[in-house]
Design goal:
Blueprint lengths: L5 E7 L3 E8 L12 E2 L2 E4 L5 E4 L2 E2 L2 E3 L15 E3 L1 H9 L4 E2 L2 H5 L24 H19 L9 E6 L5 H13 L5 E5 H11 L14 E7 L4 E11 L2 E9 L7 H18 L6 H20 L5 E6 L11 E6 H12 L30 H11 L12 E5 L6 H17 L6 E2 L8 H13 L6 E2 L5 E7 L12 E7 L7 E4 L5 E4 L3 E9 L10 E2 L7 E9 L11 E10 L5 E7 L5 E4 L9
Parallel strand pairs: 1-10, 10-11, 12-17, 14-19, 17-18
Antiparallel strand pairs: 1-2, 2-3, 2-6, 4-5, 7-8, 7-9, 12-13, 13-14, 15-16, 20-21, 20-24, 21-25, 22-27, 23-27, 24-26, 27-28, 28-29
Helix pairs in contact: 3-4, 5-11, 6-7, 6-8
Length: about 600
């Protein structure tokens, strides 16, 4: 492997992918080199090719289009901007939200499932393959720009949601290897946004926060919402940073807003006796996305026309027309996604349907403010008590619109006022659509020793299920205990043996291993055994596997083992069973498959 010349950050976004970089030599330079954005070459309509600052995270199966990018000559798929446009016309062939599918525990993420609702089973690909295709495209785009310094030889950081569990993190690493990027480091997106804010010089971060502050990072992108808390501490007489809390992965974002406007436009058309199909509603969603962006970026515009194709023989003559008004944005989106609420309000959970389609675990409640209220309350329970945040850092494309930032600040301040606290400070200085990629690159600089690091480690606590040892009782299965194998905050590079405990490991016979996670149990210590599982535990993955027996053992034998746990430098978790009486060990993989039914 050639010596790395660049530090590269890849924002692997649900809706858009952005890449930035800086020379490794910047670490040694007296004045650090700027972080540069890499425009990504993409296929456009009518065989055109263009380099764009962001690559939409969409894949479209080709119809009659011939590949125009050299590395796609044998590919049946379009990736990026043109894929999104073609998908608006033929939605059954469009793959979107692949990253959200990658963390869906209800499916086998290595099997061909996408596009999810497509009737053409032979044309489907797995979420794992979809992510690898995005990274492969990035690798080719980079190598075309830097043929002498290939991406596979650089120091690459790939961002992921903070709420990704161990299985999803492993899958991102596997997808990177499939894309011929053998050694990537993972970084949580909210941390990347914070690194971007640290790296900017227009409004120095040390002038905006002080020791004792807790900063709330609110990241609302195209498809997901994530919350994190970062505490400003002190180390060696200087300010230090620690990520102290992470929220759940919430499938809620700008795409929901586009669909909301699409339903609004559909209602307008149906009021004029027009029949709108599901296919046309998808078209409306893409049209409404453009209308939303125009209205939010141009205060002079009061409305944007919407035109959707008709169906049948008279497509042109059957085109349907309506419009999206500024008042639609302000009333429908502002009050629907950022409504005023109390600090003790919970998101509404829809439990009306007894049987549901297996799909992404979309949020039932669109109110981001209620999800935030629940998150903040959880950070002030048990042994955790971070109080109220003193500052807020916005990230994600949704917050490019000032009206959404202002409304969220208004709601948070209403909570602070009721609690007798000072109003929250808004941290400034980052470009929202590029912050995660730039922050990932700065993190690469910090890892080389030039910048400040955020201490965070494992974002959640992880547990291994251990079957209780009890006398046999007819019709009664021994309960499962939970052994803490990684406490929230465990740093990367940590390798620990579980002390003073020996376990019986079933070998030579199929057995089930269970894993759990929790993001609200910071009081649990490494190697602590929890006798009773409560609502704070969440199944993260299970594994049914036959661990090979070594010579002298029979199928079903119990082997005395100790446990060793490693949090790797790239941000993944590994659990090993070490035989007490032989030189043998077994690795327990976090599974990506969950039995349904």
């Amino acid at each position: 492997m050639a010596k790395a010349k660049y530090l590269v950050g890849i924002d692997l976004g649900t809706t858009n992918i952005v890449v930035s970089y800086t020379p490794v030599s910047a670490v040694e330079a007296e004045t650090p080199a700027p972080i540069t954005l890499l425009p990504l070459v993409q296929e456009l309509a009518k065989g055109a090719v263009e380099k764009l600052e962001a690559m939409p995270s969409f894949i479209f199966e080709r119809l009659k289009e011939k590949p125009v990018l050299a590395w796609d000559e044998d590919s049946n798929y379009i990736i990026g901007d043109y894929a999104r446009e073609r998908g608006a016309e033929v939605p059954d062939r469009l793959i979107s939200s692949a990253k959200s599918w990658l963390c869906n525990q209800r499916i086998d993420r290595t099997q061909p499932l996408l596009p999810w609702n497509s009737p053409e089973e032979n044309a489907k690909i797995s979420p794992l393959l979809a992510i690898s295709m995005f990274l492969r495209h990035v690798r080719h785009a980079w190598n075309e720009e830097f043929p002498k310094d290939k991406l596979e030889d650089q120091k690459v950081v790939v961002t992921i949601p903070a709420s990704f569990d161990a299985a999803a993190r492993d899958l991102v690493v596997e997808a990177s290897k499939m894309a011929e990027l053998p050694a990537v480091t993972l970084l949580e997106e909210p941390q990347a946004a914070f690194y971007s804010w640290i790296s900017q010089s227009e409004k120095p971060w040390r002038q905006q926060v002080k020791k004792g502050d807790v900063v709330l990072v609110v990241d609302v992108g195209g498809g997901t919402t994530d919350f994190s808390l970062i505490e400003i501490g002190e180390a060696g007489g200087d300010l230090a940073l620690e990520r102290v809390a992470v929220g759940n992965h919430i499938l809620l974002g700008g795409d929901n807003m586009d669909l909301t406007l699409a339903y609004l436009a559909r209602n307008k058309l149906e009021e004029s006796k027009k029949k709108i199909s599901h296919w046309q509603t998808v078209q409306l969603s893409h049209q409404c996305r453009r209308a939303k962006e125009l209205l939010l970026s141009d205060s002079e515009k009061d409305s944007v026309p919407i035109v959707v194709s008709g169906r049948g023989s008279s497509v042109i003559g059957g085109a349907l027309k309506t419009s999206i008004e500024r008042k639609d944005i302000e009333a429908t989106l502002l009050d629907g996604f950022f409504p005023a609420c109390a600090m003790n309000d919970d998101p509404v959970e829809d439990t009306s349907g007894g049987v549901r389609e297996i799909s992404l675990m979309y949020a039932a409640d669109a109110a981001i403010t209620r999800h935030l209220a629940k998150f903040l309350r959880h950070q002030n329970s048990g042994d955790k008590h971070y109080g109220f945040p003193q500052a807020i850092l916005f990230n994600g494309g949704v917050f490019r619109a000032e009206i959404f930032r202002n409304r969220l600040v208004e709601v948070i301040n209403s909570w602070l006022e009721e609690a007798g606290k000072e109003t929250i400070r808004v941290l400034e200085g980052i470009e929202l659509s590029q912050a995660v990629a730039r922050g990932a690159t700065y993190f690469g600089v910090a890892r080389e020793g030039r910048g400040i690091r955020i201490r965070g480690g494992v974002s959640q606590s992880y547990y291994l299920g251990v079957e209780s040892s009890l006398p046999a009782v007819p019709g009664y299965k021994p309960p499962i205990k939970a052994l803490c194998v990684a406490k929230q905050g465990t740093e990367e590079g940590t390798v620990s043996d579980v002390p003073g405990r020996t376990f019986g490991l079933v070998v030579g016979k199929s057995a089930e291993f269970k894993f759990f996670k929790s993001n609200c149990r910071r009081e649990d210590d490494f190697a602590q055994m929890i006798d009773e599982l409560d609502e704070t535990f969440e199944d993260t993955s299970s594994l049914t596997i036959e661990l090979p027996a070594y010579e002298g053992l029979e199928p079903g034998d119990l082997v005395d083992v100790g446990l060793q746990v490693a949090v790797t430098e790239i941000g993944t978790l590994e659990v090993y069973c070490l035989a007490r009486k032989a030189d043998h060990r077994w690795k327990l993989e976090f599974n990506v498959r969950e039995k349904i039914g």
